[in-house]
Amino acid sequence: MDSRYYPGVEADVPQLSAELRGLFDSEFEVQAFQVSTTSVLQARKSSTLRDLTGLSSALTIKITPESGGTRVEIGMQKWFDKAAVAAVGVFAFPPLLALAALGAYWQYKLTEDTWKIIENHIARKAGGYVPPLPGRCGTCGAANVADSDFCTSCGANLKIGRNCSNCGAPQKDSAARFCNRCGKPLTA
User: Fold this and answer.
1) Who contacts 83 (Cβ-Cβ below 8 Å, separation ≥6)?
2) Which pTM was predicted?
């Protein structure tokens, strides 16, 4: 489960849920429910072929208002089913290998598109970029020792000024997941 904490921002949960539902077009089965103070949105895409090959997508989004901010968690179904399909595909039916790779890509893209919607909503509510709290991880909100390079709770890179492996540009935001110059994903 990928977790991010947005300090000082109270998300408009009904509005954010509606924005996320817009991502899941008619091809997804969507359900929303409340568990205590956490709003949960689940979306899955399935068909007989997807179910047989282990490529059925399932995404769970949890939005929790916390004291002083909002926590959002996203989890996809385990990647192990793709690996199992790929292993069987190599020996039994080679086209399954391509289907496993395609399914993994779709899940990655769906997760990234979901984070973009969430981060845009948070930025609108905050009136711009939401910096992490001093001494706290911008990804999970955990407290860290001063001068730590990585979060002790989630492993996120806490160093501002790290360089993009694609274009070499120094990064201005320690919690950034994408390069501020070329837009490529950043690696830890």
Assistant:
1) 100
2) 0.60
